[in-house]
Input
Amino acid sequence: MHDLRQDLSGLWRAAARMSTSGGSRSVLFISANAGEGTSSIAASFALIAANYSDRMAWLVDLHLPQNAVFQGFHKRFAGDVGAPGRAYDASFGHRAVFQFSPAPPHGGDYGKLLTAHQIGEARLMITRFRNEQLGLDQNVVFDPNSKWWSSLRRAADWIILDSPALSHSAAGLNYIRKADSIVLVVEADKTQAKDVSRLKQMVETRGGHILGIVMNRRREDARFFERLADGYSYNR
Output
């Protein structure tokens, strides 16, 4: 991951104008293809949001069970912030937080597979899935219908959702309605305009409000566009 905070001032200004829902604001970051820098942008935005939070900002890693966000902070991708701290139970007392395939045996408390870690002294919590408890052939995603989401709303000022790329998994589309706004991530000179248009259509079909697009020109550079035309295109 890369620290892109210096490039996201436009995105922050646009997001800060969002109205609150249930006491918090929620933004989902998603891309059409893997490797477009979504985790870097989501994590960088989360650090900005933490600076403006009275309670906490939460960065929820939807890439179960890779834990890419936790690993990025553990490797100190942003040098001026601390590493993940001790593990806290992030279930908010809910047992039904995930959906498994195949289903696990009955009787387990599977909410406790999710931990939260504060980043240094920042008002930022990041999630980690305890993937060591996952079976070899078992897949897992957050349950979009769990009451856990409402509890998260009450605990955070900002909720940032880092979604898998559409080319990797369609799971991120299940959380569109959990977010107040959606930010599309595009890697310039690589992502086809048709892929962006397809992603945009899929998000809007599910009722998502697209705040704008972040275009990565290089790994260390990004630019935010607040408006997306139906025929969105860019120089390649």
In short: The CA atoms of residues 187 and 216 lie 5 Å apart. The two ends are 24 Å apart (CA to CA). The chain has five helices and eleven strands. Residues 38-51 form the longest helix (14 residues).
